[in-house]
From TrEMBL:
Residue ranges occupied by any CAAX prenyl protease 2/Lysostaphin resistance protein A-like domain in the UniProt entry: 70-157
Keyword line: Membrane, Transmembrane, Transmembrane helix
UniProt entry tagged with the keyword Lipid biosynthesis: no
Transmembrane segments: 20-38, 50-73, 116-137, 144-163
Domain of life: Bacteria
Originating organism: Hydrogenothermus marinus
One GO-annotated biological process of the protein: CAAX-box protein maturation
InterPro entries: Rce1/LyrA-like_dom (IPR003675)
Protein name: CAAX prenyl protease 2/Lysostaphin resistance protein A-like domain-containing protein
């Protein structure tokens, strides 16, 4: 289970980042490591279908584009790296061992744990649920674009509208 080594390295780097902020850069590097040794086709980076799925799902679920702030675009590289690591790498590896639905649930649990490390709150626990949607978008579209775009708009919706009600 090669992916567990990368995952636990990510978790340790995030724990260390709480003490030494430069470890955030290391954690980002760990997130994009699958790009170095995985075939790009595996992520569906060249499939337009995934891009369209991501946009359509975002428009249907988040019809708030009038509140869009271009300053939020700086989140996309981090979101894309998370999706490469969790959906493109971990979910793919788990799908080889378990059925796809269980792989999505396990990946979502693994996705929410680093969020808990960074911010121990109910909001971090709740990342589990949108992660399931990200997993199914990736599963059905076979493209990392679908989950990345929807993840971006989920974060934007959360930051623009929900955070003031939940804090």
């Amino acid at each position: 289970m090669n992916f567990l080594i990368f995952y636990f390295t990510l978790v340790i780097s995030l724990i260390l980042a709480k003490l030494y902020p430069y470890f955030y850069y290391i954690s980002f590097f760990i997130l994009i490591l699958p790009l170095w040794f995985y075939n790009f086709e595996k992520f569906g980076l060249f499939k337009i279908k995934g891009f369209i799925y991501g946009l359509l799902a975002s428009i249907i679920y988040f019809p708030f584009l009038s509140g869009f702030s271009f300053s939020l675009l700086n989140q996309f590289p981090q979101i894309f790296a998370e999706e490469i690591f969790f959906r493109g790498y971990i979910q793919n590896e788990l799908s080889k061992r378990f059925n796809n639905h269980l792989a999505i649930i396990i990946t979502s649990f693994l996705f929410s744990l680093p969020h808990l490390i960074l911010s121990f709150s109910i909001l971090s626990v709740l990342t589990f649920f949108p992660s399931i949607i990200f997993g199914y978008l990736y599963y059905y579209s076979k493209s990392i674009w679908a989950s990345s775009i929807f993840h971006f708009f989920s974060n934007m919706f959360f930051q623009l509208f929900l955070i003031e009600f939940l804090i």
